[in-house]
Amino acid sequence: MSVREIAAEIVAREGGFANDPDDPGGATKYGVTLGTLRRLKLDLTGDGSVGIGDVRALSREQAIGIFIRHYFEAPRISWLPDCLHATMFDMYVNAGSNAVRILQQLLREMGYRVAADGIIGPQTAGASAEAAAIDAEALCNAYGVARRNYYFRLADRRPASRKYARTRAGGKGGWITRAEEFISPDYHLSRQAFQQRIAAWD
Q1: Cα separation of 41 and 44, whole Å?
Q2: Please, what sign has the CA dihedral across residues 64, 66, 68, 71?
Q3: Is residue 116 helix, strand or coil?
Q4: In 3-state terms, the chain is what percent helix, strand and coil (to 5)?
């Protein structure tokens, strides 16, 4: 799958305009937040300021371009093994440099000497390549599980975010299903395991 195809899938997954007061990212469209537009100084409406109107004006193609340039190329995800591209790209859009820290911490747990600094450099790229050479599928699955655990920990700490990890009906929320899209079904949580994990939230 090409980087553009991955970006288009992310845009489709993120959906249209939303301004959820419980979302720390604020107003967003296709996954691009108001904060991102302000950081990039993208005055799409041409009114001299960057506000919610610019978020609403964002096109799908503009979102795809922003993601490729600023969330794949800029953080150097291309330096990583192909098996990590889709899940890391998706996670970087969702969580910024924490996507890299999750990988780095995973590599450290596997015995590689890398700094968990959220920056992809030669150390992280080299360790990832070594791990992928041993078993690329295992690396991707391990990252996906670590990513899912990251979401659970966020929801543990911030009750307002639990609606992103658990549906109103009590099933897996968007965060969890999103992480599991990139891992083997063998590592998906069963309904019982999911309920056990979130039992303390009730």
Answers
A1: 9
A2: negative
A3: coil
A4: 65, 5, 30
Q: Among residues 156, 131, 153, 126, which one has the least CA distance to residue 143?
A: 131
Q: Are 174 and 168 in contact (CB under 8 A)?
A: no
Confidence category of residue 27, pLDDT binned at 50, 70, 90 = confident
In angstroms, what CA-CA distances link 181 with 10, 64, 136, 197?
12, 20, 16, 19
What DSSP string describes 15-79?
-S-B--TT-TT-SEETTEEHHHHHHTT--SS-SSS-SHHHHHH--HHHHHHHHIIIIIITTTGGG
- Give the pLDDT score at 1: 81
Is residue 89 a contact partner of residue 10, using CB atoms and an 8 Å limit?
A: yes
pLDDT at residue 162 in the model: 94
166 secondary structure, DSSP code: B
pLDDT for the residue numbered 14: 84
